[in-house]
Every structure is written in structure tokens, then in C-alpha cells.
């Protein structure tokens, strides 16, 4: 496959220097010297832009995750672009596919079926609209734009606003493991708070003299005023 791809690019470069609007240059190296032949991209650069600040929404609302793309230098004419949205884990690895679109045709996946579609109001816009936002939608999303051999992406952080509150199980404090805590939250129509949600509540004055589970499986202790009954005066 690499040889076939390389040969195809060589033919395109020799007869038509621009393929899909991009120019590909070829460097020959001596394979016997331990180096391989390299084909690299040196034409118009595809740039994907998303907001640096988080996008906030609430349960049951509609939200737009902004994403736009452009070329440097600009390329004229209509292009056949593929757009892909994915939900990410905290470590930026893919958690689930959200939507794939080519032109006006798109397919949403899993829990996003019937709730997600592409907002293409302007030129070179790839924004994602999610309706009836759910608590589980909180997290990072990757907007990926694919043009031929070019593939660039950027990330949007969606944060759900709500009330961070403690839960005391009937059989006593600290009696739930992580998975039991997740289940109890679901039974009440809630989810375990994320670190960002807890941090925001803490920044707004939350002072809770208890440790509690968070969505990433860690345990946090949101103390603002150190005191002896709550871990000691030096906490």
C-alpha cells in the first residue's frame, strides 16, 4: 500500500502538480543507507478553529459547539469536505463517535442519534448542534475536518451547569464504592460531578467537610476553611 500510494502521488506530481488543491513534493533518499523515500505536504495549510474557552449549557437545553476551518493561503472553489465529531475522554483519547458529515448528508451515532446535526450557516463552518442536552454530554469534543489527504482537528470543551450537592447513602457515610456511587446518581437523574464542576462550586464558596467520588474515579475534599474536624488545620 505505501508503494502504491507513493507511485500514485508521483504520477500526479509529474502531470498535475495540484491534487485536490494541495501540492505534494517528493524527496528521494537512499533506501540502502537506512532511509526511506518521503512524500510530504507543502501546499495550502488546513486550519481548524474552535473556542479556547469552555462552552456552557444545562440539562435539556440546546447547545452549539463552534468549529470553523480555512486554508492558508486561501483556496477558491467548493471543496468536498468530510467532517467528523467525536467525544473524548479526559486524556483526549476517543470515547465515542458523535457524527460524520459530507456536504448536507450526515449520520449521528449512539445517544446522539436524533439530537446532533451540523450547523452550516456560513462558509467553511463545521459547528455541531446538540439538542436536548443530557448530563452525560459533559466533556471534550473533537472537531475533525478531512480534505483529501489533509486531516486537521481541534477540541471544544462542553461543560454542563447544575448544582453540585453531596449525597449520603442510607447505610452510612463512605459506604459506596465508585460504581455504586455512579448507580445511585443515575437512579436520582443525576451524575457524578466532574472535577471542573466541583472546582467551580468550590470557587463559588462550597465548603464541604467530606470526601466524595468524582466522575474520573478520584476522591476530592472541597475544603475552603481548614479546621480540626475536617482533616486538620494544615489541610
TrEMBL record:
Disulfide bonds join 209-230. The keyword Ligase does not apply. Keywords: Disulfide bond, Immunoglobulin domain, Repeat, Secreted. GO terms for cellular component: extracellular space; perineuronal net; synapse. The keyword DNA-binding does not apply. Residues 45-156 form the Ig-like domain. GO terms for molecular function: hyaluronic acid binding. Coiled coil: none annotated. This is Hyaluronan and proteoglycan link protein 3. It comes from Chlamydotis macqueenii.
Amino acid at each position: 500500500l505505501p508503494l502504491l500510494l507513493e507511485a500514485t502521488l508521483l504520477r500526479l506530481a509529474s502531470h498535475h502538480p495540484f491534487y485536490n488543491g494541495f501540492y505534494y513534493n517528493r524527496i528521494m533518499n537512499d533506501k540502502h543507507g537506512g532511509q526511506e523515500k518521503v512524500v510530504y505536504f507543502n501546499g495550502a495549510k488546513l486550519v481548524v478553529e474552535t473556542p479556547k474557552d469552555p462552552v456552557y449549557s444545562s440539562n435539556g437545553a440546546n447547545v452549539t459547539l463552534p468549529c470553523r476551518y480555512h486554508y492558508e493561503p486561501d483556496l477558491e472553489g467548493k471543496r468536498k469536505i468530510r467532517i467528523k465529531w467525536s467525544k473524548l475522554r479526559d486524556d483526549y483519547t476517543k470515547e465515542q463517535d458523535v457524527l460524520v458529515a459530507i456536504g448536507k448528508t450526515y449520520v449521528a451515532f449512539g445517544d446522539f442519534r436524533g439530537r446532533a446535526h451540523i450547523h452550516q450557516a456560513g462558509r467553511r463552518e463545521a459547528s455541531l448542534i446538540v439538542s436536548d442536552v443530557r448530563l452525560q454530554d459533559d466533556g471534550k469534543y473533537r472537531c475533525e475536518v478531512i480534505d483529501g489527504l489533509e486531516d486537521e482537528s481541534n477540541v471544544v470543551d462542553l461543560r454542563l451547569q447544575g448544582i453540585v450537592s453531596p449525597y449520603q447513602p442510607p447505610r452510612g457515610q463512605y459506604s459506596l464504592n465508585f460504581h455504586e456511587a455512579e448507580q445511585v446518581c443515575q437512579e436520582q437523574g443525576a451524575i457524578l460531578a466532574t472535577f471542573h464542576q466541583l472546582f467551580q462550586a468550590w470557587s463559588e464558596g462550597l465548603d464541604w467537610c467530606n470526601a466524595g467520588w468524582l466522575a474520573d474515579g478520584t476522591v476530592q475534599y472541597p475544603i475552603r476553611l481548614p479546621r480540626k474536624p475536617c482533616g486538620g488545620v494544615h489541610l
